[in-house]
């Protein structure tokens, strides 16, 4: 089985547990936090990756570290991942968890390129406009690129909507040179 399919299965199980506990936000915060620690803390990364450290010891340490800080169900889920030797997939499980949650809650993420920084009011207006156009809640991730001159470029998945001034000028130029 591919690691992405395995990660998706674990994420689906975690989302089911989180929903049952009415803790989608908190479970998401824990798995994302663990993924960040795993990525940035070499000691933690080496500890989880070390084959010479038994799964019993890893589970014991994780249990003590998260006792009273994370829900018991989340800790047991994490320990099950360790028992199944899937602890190094925490980053992928976190990403799949976020994707599944977005999918179930009707959210899409859009990469939005603008020519200059936007005010919060403009960002909210853009998000509302995109949400109305797409029919799903759009979470815009803004990137500034002065080279587009004006307008916006919106990328949602494989779909690109280019409303930039640069593109309009190039279309106009192509029309004038025919």
Structure description:
With 178 residues, the chain is of the alpha+beta class. Helix content is 61%, strand content 16%. The protein has 8 helices and 4 strands; from the N terminus they run H-H-H-H-H-H-E-H-E-E-E-H. It has a 4-stranded mixed sheet. Strand 3 (151-156) and strand 4 (159-164) form a beta hairpin. Helix 1 crosses helix 6 (90-104) and helix 2 runs antiparallel to helix 6. 20% of the residues are buried. The model has no long low-confidence stretch (mean pLDDT 94).
Number of helices: 8
- Cα distance spanning the termini: 54 Å
> Order of strands side by side in the largest beta sheet?
2-1-3-4
Helix content: 55-70%
Shape: elongated
Question: Approximately how much beta-strand content do the residues carry?
Answer: 15-25%
Radius of gyration: 22 Å
Order of helices and strands: HHHHHHEHEEEH
Which structural category do the helix and sheet elements fall into?
A: alpha+beta
Instruction: Say how many strands there are.
Output: 4
Give the biggest sheet: 4 strands, mixed
Contiguous runs where pLDDT drops below 50 for at least 5 residues: none
Mean pLDDT: 94
How is the secondary structure organized here?
Elements: H1 3-20, H2 24-40, H3 42-49, H4 55-66, H5 72-83, H6 90-104, E1 107-114, H7 120-134, E2 137-144, E3 151-156, E4 159-164, H8 165-176
Parallel strand pairs: 1-2
Antiparallel strand pairs: 1-3, 3-4
Helix pairs in contact: 1-2, 1-5, 1-6, 2-6, 4-5
